[in-house]
Amino acid sequence: MNRSSLIRRTVFDSLTFGFLGVVFLIAIAQPTDRQMLELGRNSLIFLAAMVAGAVLSSVLNDVLKIRTLGEAIFAPAHKKAQLEETSWWKTFSGWQLAVTIVVMFVVALVKTKFSLYELLNEDGFAGAVRLFQGLLNPNFALLPRAVLNIIETIFMAFLATMLAIPIAFVLSFLCAKNIMKSPPAFALYLVLRTFLNVTRSIEALIWAIIFSVWVGIGPFAGMLALMIHSVASLAKQYSEMVETVSDGPIEGIQSTGATKLQTIWFAIVPQVVLPYISFTVYRWDINVRMATIIGLVGGGGIGTMLMTYQGQAMWPEVGCIILVIAAVVWAMDQASAYLREALK
Amino acid sequence: MNGEHEVVTQPILSIRNLVKTYPNGVRALKGVTFDVQKGEFLVIIGLSGSGKSTLLRCINRLHDPTSGEILFQGEDLAKAQGDGIRRIRGRIGMIFQHFNLIPRHTVLSNVLMGRLGITSTWKSLFGLWKDDDKARALDYLRLVGIADKAKIRADQLSGGQQQRVAIARALTQNPDLLLADEPVASLDPATCHTVMDYLRKVNRELGITVVANLHFLSLVREYATRVIALKGGEIVYEGSPHNIDEAWFARIYGEGSKEVHIN
Ligand SMILES: Nc1ncnc2c1ncn2[C@@H]1O[C@H](COP(=O)(O)OP(=O)(O)O)[C@@H](O)[C@H]1O
Ligand SMILES: [Mg+2]
Question: Which of the ends of chain A has fewer CB neighbours closer than 10 A, N or C?
């Protein structure tokens, strides 16, 4: 067994065993809220449980020759190939998986305060019925305003996409491994990749909150949030396209004495233009949907309007807004699907 | 010194002790030395993996040689850097097994790529070609008999036609040397001869020196003025194509190999 699969097996097993141990401990000791908040001490306990789990994993696999789940998942392919078929309930790893999932399920029920009582409680239920009645009888007096607002949303998404295109276009070449080969270029590639990954992992919603503090609540903040997110997403998709281009045309252009920029423009760009357009159309489509959500935190457009009426429990008005959103999202979805199909 | 019988010609290309070791440790060329005279049609033969492509790509610096000299018109290409490499490439045309055209561009636009080396980057990005460049591109398309296809997308052409476009592209560079890496290996036998005939025409009528990698000995005998055989990154034969007898053939391609004919 090689080192990396050994490490993965041990980490996986120590996590599952440690988790089970800690849950068991909590069930027995019934700690108070205060005790649960002592992060430092509790981390140590969890760490100790994980170490015990790691030892257990090693003992089971290497001494008792009982295959744990970690071993079953991360063993190298040639070892997996030698296994015989056995029913899962006859194996230790099968039970390890089943028990872990059942315990996770129970913990989840407790944590989400899952309650059938609340779900079927008469008062609550009556409220929900009122809400649905409102939604099903939309107040079309609000339609003109809703249409104006969703137009704002559509253009907010459009501007965010348009502004993101040139930035993502330039970044896509700087983030492509096959272009950034020399050591200094590769260093820049790593920095940019990391930067974009971090940017992308921050939800557009969070960016909207950041920008609404920066430039004030409204569509401008929402547009900036969408733009940042679009740059990161498009740059990643674009650069993946650049990494799959064929080398032939590149060599062909290079051999004529072309500069780096000419090589990119004549040998690479023609190969990626169609997928770029396709990704971009799809991004606009996604941005319209995201813009609606961003509006909920004050990013302007139809989302903000939805928030206002929902806060006052004006369900027929909310029904009208939701209808408009649904119609536009459906239309954009269809249009972008047809466009992308045609661009293949 | 007894120089009476020696013809004193300056070779156009002179390769000295060329070594290429790839980053993964493969020693593709182990000290190759030979001269190319002006106007020659030199053919390099050898099994696949013997280092033919590596050799050509070191000459125009698509690959960086590890050590050795590549003297071309008095300049050591092995030492060139940055813009120097681009200038060298501009003076040396290259055609490839898979043509390496830009599929979505027109034939004419592909041929104009040959002018990239001497056109400013910004002008070329906006497609602002000089009339002179366009006229030259059309001239060379005419030379390879394909001028009527100038406005057609390159990927609409057959393989043989694409290779002729690639030849026109290389000629548009106005090169002193033409490298050809298995120019007919992905063409059918009939088209093969058409393309080889154009290469010979370029060599004889325009006086451009040609260095080509070829697979089939029958083609070698028909077109080469001189042959070099590589084996495992070393030269094992150098001479006239007509002196390659069965014994030589076995040395180059290994015992038990048989010559395949192509007509
Ligand atoms: N980019 C590369 N990186 C590493 N090894 C390579 C590369 N290109 C070619 N080689 C190796 O160098 C040797 C010579 O290859 P090549 O010059 O392509 O031979 P030929 O053109 O005669 O078939 C082969 O062993 C091949 O595997
Ligand atoms: Mg080759």
Answer: C
Reported as a single tens digit per residue, the pLDDT across B134-192 is 999 999 999 999 999 999 999 999 999 999 999 999 999 999 999 999 999 999 988 99
pLDDT single digits (tens) B53-62 = 999 999 999 9
Residues of B in contact with A271 (CB under 8 A): 104
Q: Find, among B188, B214, B186, B210, the residue nearest to B198 by Cα.
A: B210
Tell me which chain A residue has its CA closest to the CA of residue B174.
A256
Pocket test for ligand 1, best of B18, B19, B22 (most atoms within 8 A of CB): B22
Q: Where do the structural domains in chain A lie, given as residue ranges?
A: 3-114, 134-342
Chain B partners within 8 Å of A252 (Cβ): 96, 99-102, 113, 166, 169
* Of the partner residues B86, B113, B117, the one whose CB lies closest to the CB of residue A266: B113
Cβ burial A29-58 (10 Å sphere, 16+ → b, else e): eeeeeeeeeeeeeeeeebeebbeebbebbb
Question: Model pTM?
Answer: 0.77
Query: Pick from A155, A123, A185, A191: which is nearest to A300 by CA?
Result: A155
ipTM of the complex: 0.91
> What span, in angstroms and rounded, lies between the C-alpha atoms of A170 and A175?
9
Q: Which residues partner with B231 through β-bridges? A: B234
Where do we find the tokens 């000089």? Answer: B130
Please, are residues B217 and B259 in contact by the beta-carbon 8 Å criterion?
A: yes
Task: Say which amino acid occupies B252.
Answer: I
The residue whose C-alpha atom lies closest to atom 18 belonging to ligand 1 is B53
B100, B101, B116: residue with CB nearest A258: B116
Query: What ligand 1 atom has the least distance to the C-alpha of B46?
Result: 22
- The pair of structure tokens assigned to A257 is 């004495």
Question: Are the beta carbons of A270 and B100 separated by less than 8 Å?
Answer: no
Please state which CATH class domain A134-342 belongs to.
mainly alpha
Q: Assess if CATH 3.40.50.300 describes domain B7-91+224-263.
A: yes
